[in-house]
Design goal:
single chain; about 130 residues; alpha+beta; Beta-Lactamase; five-stranded antiparallel beta sheet; about 40% helix; globular
């Protein structure tokens, strides 16, 4: 997927305090698309490792939640100067990863905006499935 061609591309980094965004596959651990601010907080060369790691976290969380009959929607990881927000997209095997600067970001607003972006991605996926 070419991230630049996606209609939701511009929205991800317009989230207040966002330093990077990625779309990943939690089933296989692949990084499907990403966009960063080119700063030290979001080194794009490390993204495959980050996405693979968070894919493992998601799989463990889903396995744990299943025993309680729960369906997690998001996972929050707080690291020194940033918040990593992991948002599952309707359990299709996709997730969004948002790196948010802790001082500049607004976590509540970021969560709301990610929900809207997830809806857009779901809509795009549904359209693609209908056309194939």
């Amino acid at each position: 997927m070419h991230f630049a061609d996606c209609s939701w591309n511009w929205q991800t980094l317009s989230i207040q305090g966002a330093v990077g965004f990625a779309l990943g596959d939690w089933k296989g651990g692949a990084c499907l698309a990403f966009k960063g601010t080119e700063g030290l907080a979001f080194p794009e060369r490390d993204l495959p490792l980050v996405i693979t790691g968070y894919a493992e976290v998601i799989r463990a969380q889903l396995k744990s939640a299943q025993s309680w009959s729960l369906k997690p929607e998001e996972i929050l990881v707080i690291i020194a100067s940033q918040c990593d927000l992991i948002y599952l997209i309707n359990l299709r095997g996709l997730f969004m990863y948002l790196a948010l600067d802790r001082e500049k970001g607004n976590l509540a607003m970021a969560r709301m905006q990610l929900t809207q972006i997830a809806d857009q991605i779901e809509h795009l996926l549904a359209q693609k499935l209908k056309s194939t």
